[in-house]
Amino acid sequence: MTLAGKQLIGQQAVTANGAAIHAIDPATGETLAPAYPGGGKQEVEQACALAWAAYATYRGSSLEDRATFLETVAAEIEALGDTLIQRAMAETGLPRPRLEGERGRTCGQLRLFASVVRAGEWLDVRIDSALPEREPMPRVGLRQRHVALGPVTVFGPSNFPLAFSVAGGDTAAALAAGCPVVVKAHSAHPGTSELVGRAVQAAVAKCGLPEGVFSLLFGAGREVGQALVADPRIQAVGFTGSRGGGTALMATAQARPQPIPVYAEMSSINPVFLLPEALKARGQAIAEGFVGSLTMGAGQFCTNPGLVIGVKGEALDAFLAAAGQAVEQSTAQTMLTPGTHEAYQQGVSRLSGHPKVREVARGQAESGPNQCQAGLFATTAADFLADETLQHEEVFGACSLVVECIGPDDLKRIAEALEGQLTATLQLDDGDLEAARTLLPTLELKAGRVLANGWPTGVEVCHAMVHGGPYPATSDSRTTSVGSAAIQRFLRPVCYQNLPAGLLPEALQDGNPLGVSRLVDGKREA
Amino acid sequence: MTLAGKQLIGQQAVTANGAAIHAIDPATGETLAPAYPGGGKQEVEQACALAWAAYATYRGSSLEDRATFLETVAAEIEALGDTLIQRAMAETGLPRPRLEGERGRTCGQLRLFASVVRAGEWLDVRIDSALPEREPMPRVGLRQRHVALGPVTVFGPSNFPLAFSVAGGDTAAALAAGCPVVVKAHSAHPGTSELVGRAVQAAVAKCGLPEGVFSLLFGAGREVGQALVADPRIQAVGFTGSRGGGTALMATAQARPQPIPVYAEMSSINPVFLLPEALKARGQAIAEGFVGSLTMGAGQFCTNPGLVIGVKGEALDAFLAAAGQAVEQSTAQTMLTPGTHEAYQQGVSRLSGHPKVREVARGQAESGPNQCQAGLFATTAADFLADETLQHEEVFGACSLVVECIGPDDLKRIAEALEGQLTATLQLDDGDLEAARTLLPTLELKAGRVLANGWPTGVEVCHAMVHGGPYPATSDSRTTSVGSAAIQRFLRPVCYQNLPAGLLPEALQDGNPLGVSRLVDGKREA
């Protein structure tokens, strides 16, 4: 399959004439063909007009049709075969097994949403029966369901070229909810984006859906993205990326005549608390698990464990020694982009040059371009608490800071000082339960997900997952970007009062023709 | 019971020293004692500090304790007896039966939320079992529940001194969710607010809850309200009132270092579509029902039917004649405040002076202060569509505009031109079903609630209610301010991954000790 370097607008492939973006192979520094001339106002207008037109039909599509569409997208992505994996490898420097795994996750995610659409829990059907005899006033019947918010625009990050990108979590959730999607491709993997975009286009055609259900725009800089968020037809935004990028979109969304929700997943340092008994009993194993999580994929995960907190003493010293040794043995890995590598180098330099921070270990260096040499640093609780930059700054990549506490009270103090996080982790043994119980209420307020005896990397796509958390981890802690509950972010409730049976949407009709779970007069009917 | 004119901060009654507010009896213009000296930064600081301290305990209170607390608030409000009704009558000009009904609704609402808390649907419990044998990677167990967002600040409107005020819908929903509440009292009914605030204070004490669960602040101007919304401990805002007031709070909430959600219910003109067959068959009855809804409570409802759309012809002429006659016979009613009356007069003047609008009828005039003389006006679809001010401007009070369409296509055109609404109503007969089916998809996108053959005033407090809708009807169409689903606006999800049984919150424990509905491996267990 030859890459065309064009905007995918509905079923068309359109040549734009803005400044072009080029993918770069981060392992070699080589520029990859083709060029992707950037879109502008015209392409945004076309994509949004088609999305709005498609919305009327698509949001009313049957559960079965919509589920089949999601499954068809998955099949079309798989049908791209090794072309997709090879292009993604070239554009990201990520190794084959990782990308094959990510493709599996992406397609599994689309199929999970297909099952979610069919089950119909997301409709949140509520029926309050008419009470014609009620005193002093009778009650007419009221019924509620959820409907699609409207066309959604999605911005993916560089680090998940498949699972959070063109047909990733936000796109799958929005399509599942009945929202057309306009994706702004990440400029680091345009070829991967085009391939997946064409797979979605093909699925739209095969399923006979209106073409505006999906478009994919390319563009250097922020013009296309900002224009999409400002467009009156766009009704919600999904974003994964930097805090600067997310807050810029939030500002645009709020400044619209009609403000819209922005779901931005931004930054997190993912604290790990090493509780004393666990540290004493299995510090070596914890150190190995930690460094495995830290260095996996060059640490380029939003759930990378960037902060470790333990109480100073022999056990923590042993942990530091073991972790340091593992870091030293870790080989360099190619980072996603020159920009990511540059930012990583700056972040590591800030830590190594910080007067209150000491270097514990650095990983193996490598002479090629964009190599991530892992870094492990340490500081004291007092110094950490005294310096907000240490508390707030995510170094994106394989870099972590160990905070040495004087006593157990410091653990709580540090938990309380943290900003909102995607995750918080406890390493604990039976003897640590009381200490964990003390920390847990604070961690619940700081993070969307609390883990025990695991590592935050590797986000399961399931029903109970929360990949979210208080600001600035995300812009909206009331929702998740991974897992089936993500469908809810693209829905709103509508109440139908006293509507004749002939006008009621199928989900709300007597006899429950869709067979969905309903709350009838306050009682759950499974 | 003597009114003290003090801020209620936790269990204390505190004399503030800011500019005082005084209630005014709108029927007489008389100033009512006592004065309420306004609070300032110090009172905001105290209330927020107490709320934050209470949050840790209160959010963890048992479902039964929290439900009992809500029921105790209801009982304490009822125990105020006629003192409450008399003071509310004096402060609002609303008649006794209306206020007695509103008290019933307020207490019923608190008891509904008690039942909602006990049922535990709001926890949205999700359990994904561990899959230790899964290939290529095992899965650990993941469980999700919802937790309280944090302390909430509530701003009530003037028109529901009980049901949307100190212990109204937002307060009840937030308390049900486990959030402490700091209410900024509406300056039009400070005495009513104090009485209800003391009832809540008493319930907090009786139930042995931390005092910061509830505080009530008074203040002239916007200082106290803005300081509350800017306070870092406040995590969400409930507001009912004007578009200007709501958008000012939204701006403050967005400008915080940590932005927070604002649920502002602002403005709506609540279109009513008169479909041809219904209009022909029962225009007279529809006209009477319409004017009853229009003039009830001097039209001072956010769901007041401010816009009526029908196709020009004999039937619409007959409707207009009947409605006009009913309006002419309607007696004047005292409005809530001099400010409300002033704004109403200005709104009516804008319509009566509008070159494209004709006056159909005015109600009876009355010489006392703040009298609402109902107004019915008419214009053409073309003129309506050509003038955004006619489309957007709510005249708060008994005033409505009838839009005469040339043909049925105009109905849809007008529906599409409208901003977001709380409600949209269809008057229809069997022969109108096809026309209704054409309109319905547009109405669903414009309104939170779609009604047939009823009137939008009289919002049922139940499970299926949506009192919400797209901007500018509210700031957040994903939620409702009336009905049991309102609890969701004050919650966020947390995922617990691989937590030892001894650390799991009760809602998530094996054996389902709370007996709540759960989604287990994607299957609903009622």
TrEMBL record, chains A, B:
User: Any idea where the Aldehyde dehydrogenase domain is?
Assistant: 17-469
Record's signal peptide: none
Q: Name one Pfam family in it.
A: Aldedh
- Highest taxon listed in the record's lineage: Bacteria
Q: Where are the transmembrane segments?
A: none
- Entry keywords, A to Z: Oxidoreductase
Question: PANTHER family per the record?
Answer: ALDEHYDE DEHYDROGENASE-RELATED (PTHR43353:SF3), SUCCINATE-SEMIALDEHYDE DEHYDROGENASE, MITOCHONDRIAL (PTHR43353)
This protein is called what? Aldehyde dehydrogenase (NADP(+))
